[in-house]
Amino acid sequence: MVLFNEFRPTAVAAGWARLRDRGLPPTARVISIGGPETGCSFGSNPGLLFRRHASGPVAQLDRALASGARGREFESRRARSSQLEASSAIGVDEASLLLDQPGSHAPTPQRRSGAYEAMRDRTHDLLASRPPERARSRKQPWIRSLAILVAVSLSPTGSADAQRGAARALAAIRSAEEHGLPPARYGLPRLEQLIRTDPIAADSALTINLIRLAEDLRYGRVRPNPYSNTRQNEQVDIAAAVRTALAADTVPELIDAMAPAFPQYRQLREALRRAPRDSSEPTQKIRLTMERLRWLPRRVEGRIVLVNIPAFQLSAFDSPDFGGSAALTMPVIVGRARSTRTPQLAAQMRTVEFRPFWNVPQSILAGELLPAMRKNPRYLIEHDMEIVGPGDTVLGDTYDTDTLDRLSRGELRIRQRATKRNALGAVKFEFPNPSSIFLHDTPDKNLFSRERRDLSHGCIRLADPTAMAEWSLGNHPGWNRDSTERAMAGPSRRIMSVTQPTMVILFYGTAEAIPEGGIRYYQDIYGLDRQLTATLHATR
Length: 540
Fold this sequence. Notes:
The protein is an alpha+beta fold. The protein is built from 17 helices and 19 strands. Strands 3, 4, 5, 6, 7, 12, 13, 14, 15, 16 and 17 form an 11-stranded mixed beta sheet that branches. Strands 8-11-9-10 form a 4-stranded antiparallel beta sheet. Strands 1-2 form a two-stranded parallel sheet. Strand 18 and strand 19 (about 520) form a beta hairpin. Helix 6 (about 190-195) packs antiparallel against helix 7. The longest helix has 21 residues, at about 200-220.
């Protein structure tokens, strides 16, 4: 049986012909999988079937493998041609894989052993003859490795080694619960029954579910997520890793390697292991925080600045796994829950700017400043602000109706001078990102005495910007706290590069393992836990 990740009838038929020309066994069957639940049969091509499932790619493969290993025909239906026009993410003959021998019934282990090996090797040769460049696309980076895994790595079912391997693989899948993942997502308890009643089907289903579990541990269940763009270069050949683990009997080690190595994750996992297996709010907060930790970048060099939004806290770490004691911690102010939420993101810190201007964002200008300026002609003077034109030409702090109209159209902008009333205070920390979020000082120090501090327009206000600047620039020769304080009190703007790699991660975790031991829980101020719970429930 050959499986295509393709759903255009003409492309499937063409790919079928090409594979037959390149030596595919003439009695083989082909199945095509894709998006919404539609189907089409090809009566003129014996053995060529078409099937589309409504669920995601890994679930499709699970169902295709489990059914195909038992030799079942896939039910197909005629679909409107308009539903079959969209292009797939990968070419039809570039992701084919041999799943099992053809036939209307499952082959016995004795029949399967020799013929299966020969057909498996033939498919491997077909795959190797043309490297599927598009298979490494961001849309489906796992297709090629999955194809090679299923074509090459499955051992004949029925031997004692295979039975022991199945037991170990099943134990690894049961361990999903320790990671806050539902074992039912990975085939339990159906797999347990298959191992007893249909070992051939169990062989394929175990492999596919191990791949699915490893993917979820490596990237999280929700994909894409707020950090996906920062992990484009982190793709791992998970199927090859599963193949190696199955062959070397190291499946438990594989599962540990796919999970985050962050100490925070390990501590939450241990807390979850001890917690009641229920849906109580504390337990659910641990599970959701572990899911978000799985989203985070893994290949980070240098240092980490972690802002936990619902905790209203920043922690700076000298190591990339934000493990051990933080080099620096401080309270922060984050975006308002009702209107200007701080986003989850990760980006490299590039510069520290002393005595900065505050360039007022267009959203704040339109929503707050322009109405105030129309009521009070002296508004800019009273707030140390000025109008700026093209090329940073300063146009002053007085205005008329025409100036207000040009400001509303974005032809002019407003900035606040570097005075004591500047909203950014004496220093800001830039890490370029699509949301234009940055860390900064604030003149409103009294706000840090509040327990709940979602008070900003989205950027992060720091309780101790001096310590943050000293830490960020500590790699500069001779730079110390005195240097920082002089720069913050200086007469003019000064921009310095952050030369040591430093990633800023804006994170949303309502459960945190604390150094003193135990778990601290935080209020779900943005309602993101409720949203994530609903998303995960919909993808079980």
